[in-house]
Amino acid sequence: MSSRRAAITLGTVVFLSSLTVWGVHYQQESEREAMYQGVLKDDARRREKMLQRQLDFEESKKKREIYERAQSIDPRSLE
């Protein structure tokens, strides 16, 4: 009888230990994937920000050209 009880206890411990190891690996993989997605999102935000800055620069450049055509600038005043 005690041999059967020992076998059940051993089986239960092995099962729970295996389940714990699997759970930890699953959690680590999930966290790794979440971190990777964060990196991808950061890259996308950075590209979007750079594009917006480029568009702002182009708009500023156009405005400057318009202003320079409308008013004369004395080069000595820029020094």
Structure, described:
By secondary structure, the chain is an all-alpha fold. The protein has one domain (2-69). Helix content is 87%, strand content 0%. The protein contains 1 helix and no strands. The protein has one helix at residues 2-70. The protein is rod-shaped and about 105 Å long. This is Cytochrome c oxidase assembly protein. It is found in: Mitochondrion. One of its GO terms (biological process) is mitochondrial respiratory chain complex IV assembly. Belongs to the PET117 family. Residues 1-23 form the signal peptide.
Notable features of this structure?
single chain; 79 residues; mainly alpha
Q: How many DSSP helices?
A: 1
The biggest sheet amounts to:
none
Q: Give the mean pLDDT.
A: 92
Report Rg.
Answer: 33 Å
Structural class: mainly alpha
Pfam families: PET117 (PF15786)
Keywords: Mitochondrion, Signal, Transit peptide
Protein name: Cytochrome c oxidase assembly protein
Main location: mitochondrion
SSE inventory with pairings:
Blueprint: H1 2-70
Summarize the model shown.
Helix content is 87%, strand content 0%. The chain has one helix spanning 2-70.
